[in-house]
Amino acid sequence: MKRVFTTPGTHPYDEVRWERRDVVMTNWRDGSVNFEQHGVEFPDFWSVNAANIVTTKYFRGAVGTPQREWSLKQLVDRVVGVYTRTGVENGYFASDEDAEIFDHELKHALVHQMFAFNSPVWFNVGTASPQQVSACFILAVDDTMESILDWYKEEGVIFKGGSGSGVNLSRIRSSKELLSSGGTASGPVSFMRGADASAGTIKSGGATRRAAKMVVLDVDHPDIEEFIETKAREEDKIRALRDAGFDMDLGGKDIVSVQYQNANNSVRVSDDFMRAVESGSKFGLRARQTGEVIDEVDARELFRKMAKAAWECADPGVQYDDTINDWHTCPETGRITASNPCSEYVHLDNSSCNLASINLLKFLKDDDQFDIASFVKMTELIITAMDISITFADFPTEKIGETTRAYRQLGIGYANLGALLMATGHAYDSDGGRSIAGAITSLMTGVSYRRSAEIAGIVGPYDGYARNESAHKRVMRKHAAANDDLQTIGGMDTDIHAEASRQWTECLKLGDKHGYRNAQASLLAPTGTIGLMMDCDTTGIEPDLALVKFKKLVGGGSMQIVNQTIPRALNQLGYLQEQVEAIVEYIAENGHVVDAPSLKPEHYEVFDCAMGARAIAPMGHVRMMAATQPFLSGAISKTVNLPEAATVDDIEQVYLEGWRLGLKALAVYRDNCKVGQPLSIAKKDEEDKTQAEPAPAVQVIEVARPTRRRMPNSRPSMTTRFTVGGAKGYMTASSYPDDGLGEVFLKMSKQGSTLAGVMDAFSVAISIGLQYGVPLETYVQKFVNMRFEPAGMTDDPDVRMANSVMDYIFRRLALDHLSYDERAALGIFSASERIAQQRGELQESIDREALAQSAPIESKPATPEIPAPHTALESHQGRTADAPLCMTCGTKMRPAGSCYVCEGCGSTSGCS
Question: Is the pLDDT of residue 867 over 60?
Fold first, then answer.
């Protein structure tokens, strides 16, 4: 071991300025404190957000007790101490001095946010808990009831530990085949129901995150059509139940009636199938027991169904089976059949992978050159540490433990690629951006396998290496050949590629001599929570989400800032300081660069993001994945985002190009695809058709004009305070003393603001309409189900979800001022009425007085409210960040690979 980042005789902590902070986390609903720890210690360059997440997520011990960790030093010491001791005990280091260097270098790297291990390491290592270090698991299921029940149990154990797993159900015989007893088999989709219910139950009690799982089915399975359409059908139920007023939000009490919502689904497609799609030929579905073709389908029609289902609900994704297994280092042990929940870990059944990700922006020097030497040394250090972790790690099942110890799969990756490209003046969707990404990925994997071969020379190759030696070496040569084929454009990528070529040459030479310590080395994970821990601007391989973000401040609150990468990019592109300041000010106000002062149109693409006015095209995401995939042992966690206007044809094209470009797995997400556009489009088509019909001849006759019935000076009123998607407001509804609603006033935002003015004008318009005799039910019909932001969860027990403020207001008015029969015709019911219906009780038995008393009434004056950060951010992005609400703190999450991460508390919906 050699010192690169540390100084002999000086502890790495002594080179850092430390400061004490208070971490106070409040409940998003009512502002109450749900976590509080004072005097925590962090380096002064760590952001408030990073310190908050580490304190709440990773510090161990009960809050308020002496055993509670309070300093980042304690956390890093706890983890690194186990790694160093294990390395010494197992002969990894040549001397005590080498062990000390390893210890110091690792601590320096972690404290300076140069890389991070995945979350289970921080949760478990050095504690009394089992030393689970892996975040990703793959299980196996055979065609027996015993194996299926074992699958349920093993998944439950993994979910309980806060990790995720994937499984391929293709060995289970289809519903079109017979059992040995002569009966008809249930089929894999039926068994998915039980596993889905189990995951939903365990997630609600999980301490660290909700359950994450992947279910895979081969494209030649006879039940493949049912599998493809499973989640799309359930989405139809969600739309219908939500429109009927049921609580269908994430974690809502009624969502449990909908199935298959706790897993990502993927179809494992073969080259034969994809070629059949291209040629438009038939494709055979095969019996699981005999392998004989029992049905033939039109390949294009089946492919179309996959794309249509993904268009409707984002599932299923695709995994390219032959590509995955062509890059498999251990085919003599078994095929790769499945993946982890986010699709980046693809290896043997009953195995696991521990992850670590490098913060690429930390290796961009002040002169805007990539620090190749430091990156090489950091990769060596991480691979050494990750291999040591398998030696001491515990596993949820003995089968997983045996496979992982025998094959020692690692998953090194990186984060902040999007920020690195922008900072160096490269567009994400450009030849230059792809060349840099490919060169860095090739260098990382080349160094990783070279270090793996060096470790094998000291402590031996992985146990399964001997039987797979020829295949493993073949895959190494494929990586090296892909590196030789990499086309550089003559910038910083040229030097990175030259070093990668040297590393691959040395890797092949050492591998021939010693073999390899690890069957797998690299992949690209979503880096959700750990990306926030490292203060990364972008996660995994993703581009920047938007040019404007919200930064948490010491002492609470937040401020809107333009990403700090942008000034650096503008300087790199040659703009003067006053031009930089003007452009940054324009971005802060508008959220995009279009028409920014002094900014050249040819530079717009450098600032393209995943969302907003200049969103990166879907194929731009696919091409970036293709640029890095040949240099990864595993796959890539990434979702290809498509605009709401995208068609089924667009998704078909993405899936086809993913196969042609050599990807291993791919998922798509069309904006707002879970809202039910097919229904609204059909309705619009019907309206257009009606309008297109010629109008019949009419006779003009005199009719009585309506007269206004003014409200008396003294009238009864009710004030309701409400919250919709984090935005608060007040509604005062006044009634005639003798009959019905006559006036509505709405208060949101500050007096004098545009929103306040619009709401005042809308209130006057509605009030005048009511006084001229427009029935309330007419307004309810027009405004209920109207969708725009803010939308989401409310604090009203009768209306748990609202598609917009208008949707909530008129549902509330209907509940307060319309009769049961009138509301029943509109499909609007209170919580008590819905419960009564579910129990089969008669409508007449509902206690109207009890319902009225339960309505929220509050007369306190309205106070100015600042929009929630995600709401203001989305206004800059130009469209909705269509992501779920966080299960932990309730704020809207953001995409991180094919998962989601909460920037408020660090929770993720998958791997971290």
Answer: no
Residue 294 vs residues 223, 227, 285, 422, 539: alpha-carbon distances, Å: 11, 17, 6, 53, 45
Pair 891, 725: CB distance under 8 Å: no
Residues 6+ apart with CB under 8 A from 567: 580, 584
Q: Which of 313, 342, 886, 889 is catalytic?
A: 342
Provide the pLDDT for residue 856: 45
pTM: 0.79
Known catalytic membership, residue 344: yes
Quote the strand ranges of 520-679, DSSP E: 548-552, 558-562, 639-642, 665-670
Helix H, strand E, coil C: the string for 584-616 is HHHHHHHCCCCCCCCCCHHHHHHHCECCCCCEC
How far is the C-alpha of 679 from the C-alpha of 681, rounded, in Å?
Answer: 5
Active-site residue flag, 27:
no
- How high is the pLDDT of residue 705? 65
- Candidates 154, 155, 229, 344; catalytic one: 344
Span between the terminal Cα atoms of the chain, in Å: 29
- List the catalytic residue out of 52, 168, 262, 340: 340
DSSP 45-102: TS-HHHHHHHHHHT--S-TTSTTS--BHHHHHHHHHHHHHHHHHHTT--SSHHHHHHH
H-helix segments, 90-136: 96-111, 119-124
Reply yes or no on whether 803 is catalytic. Answer: no
Examine the pLDDT at 183 and tell me if it is beyond 60: yes
> Is residue 214 within 8 Å of 338, Cβ to Cβ?
yes
Average pLDDT over residues 187-211: 67
What confidence category does residue 691 fall into, taking pLDDT thresholds of 50, 70 and 90?
very low
Neighbours of 187 (CB within 10 A): 21
> What whole-number distance in Å separates Cα of residue 725 and Cα of residue 101?
50
Closest residue by Cα to residue 726 from 851, 893, 611, 573: 893
On average, the pLDDT of the chain sits at 86
